[in-house]
Amino acid sequence: MSHSINSFPFTRLSQGHLNLLENCPRKFQHIYFDQLGVPISYEQQERLSWGSHFHLLMQQRELGLPVESLVEGEQQLHQWLSALINAAPEVLNRDTQTFRESEHCRTLNFHGYLLTVVYDLLIGTNSCAQILDWKTFPQPKNRQPLATDWQTRLYLYVLTETSDYLPEQISMTYWFVKSQPRPQSLKFSYSRIQHQKNREDLTELLGQLSCWQQRYQDDPIGFPQIAASTGRCQNCSFAVRCQRTPESVVNNTKGLLANLTELQEVPL
Ligand code: SF4
C-alpha cells in the first residue's frame, strides 16, 4: 500500500498535466500556479473546435442518438465519420456481450493525487479491453512519441489499476480520422513490465511535483527550467518571463563578462 506524498490543493491530474510537467516544470508553474494564459492561434482554435465537434458526434452515435442534425451542412465531417465507421469495425459492431461506453471517465488515487482519464470509447469483453481514441491530427510517421506520451501510458495504467484486466489483456488504439485516403490507426499493447515502469515514473514525477509545490509555497523558489541548450525556449510564450529570449541570453552573458572583468581588477 502506497503512502501519500501529496498534501497540496493541486491534486487532479490528467495526461496533459503530466506531459507539461515532464516537458518543462517552469511552464507548468506559470500556467497552473501563476495562472498565466497561453495565447491560442486561430488555427489551434479551429482544430480544437473541430475536434470537440467530432467527439460529440461520436458520443451521440454511441448513445444511439441521431447525428444528422450535427453533420448538417458539414460535408467533410460527414465524410470523415463515414470513413471511420467503415475503417474501424469495432466502432460499428455492437453486441450485448460487450461493455461499451463513450466518454468513459476513471479516476485513480495515486499517492494523494487524483489521476483522471476520459476514454473516447472503452470496449470490454470477458477476455480483453480496448481503449479507443479519436485524433484529428494526421497519423505521425513515428509511433515512438505516442508510445511515450502520458496519454498512452496513463490511460493504460489507470485501466489496469481500476479493473480486473491484466496488463496483457488491455490495449489502446488511436484512430487518425483525417488520414487520407482512409483513416489510419496505431495500436499499443500493454505488459506487466510497462506497467511497472509507468508506476515507477509516475511515483518519481509526482514526488518531484510535491517537492516543487512545497518549495514554491514556502520561499517561493520557481519550478525548474529546462536547459536553454534544448532550444525549446525560443518558441515558448514565456521566454521573456524566463529570460530566455536571444537578447536576455546576450545580456546575461554580458553581465557575466562584466563581473569577470571586475573580479580581475580586484587587487590581491
Ligand atoms: S521559456 Fe523555457 S524554461 Fe521558460 S517556461 Fe518556456 S520552455 Fe520552460
List keywords for this structure.
268 residues; 6-stranded mixed beta sheet; 6 strands; globular; disordered C terminus; binds iron/sulfur cluster
Account of the protein in words:
The protein has ten helices and six strands. The protein is of the alpha/beta class and 268 residues long. The chain has helices at 15-23, 25-33, 42-62, 68-71, 75-87, 89-92, 144-148, 150-161, 192-218, 246-265, and strands at 12-13, 99-110, 113-124, 129-135, 170-176, 184-189. It has two domains: 12-218, Alpha-Beta Complex (Lambda Exonuclease, Chain A), CATH 3.90.320; 228-265, no CATH class. The protein is 46% helix and 17% strand. Strands 1, 2, 3, 4, 5 and 6 form a six-stranded mixed beta sheet that branches. Iron/sulfur cluster binds next to α2.
End-to-end CA span: 61 Å
Poorly predicted residue ranges = 1-5, 256-268
> What is the top-level CATH class of the largest domain?
Alpha Beta
Shape: globular
What is the domain total for the residues? 2
Overall average residue pLDDT: 85
Number of strands: 6
| Structural class estimated from helices and strands | alpha/beta
Q: What is the fold-level CATH name, i.e. the topology of the largest domain?
A: Lambda Exonuclease, Chain A
Output the radius of gyration: 23 Å
CATH architectural label of the largest domain: Alpha-Beta Complex
Proportion of β residues? Answer: 15-25%
Bound molecules: iron/sulfur cluster
- The level of helicity is 40-55%
Enumerate how many helices there are, as a single number: 10
Helix-strand topology string:
EHHHHHHEEEHHEEHH
* Biggest sheet layout: 6 strands, mixed
Oligomeric composition of the shown chains: single chain
Keywords: ATP-binding, DNA damage, DNA repair, Helicase, Hydrolase, Nucleotide-binding
Domain PD-(D/E)XK endonuclease-like: 12-243
Organism: Symploca sp. SIO1C4
Pfam families: PDDEXK_1
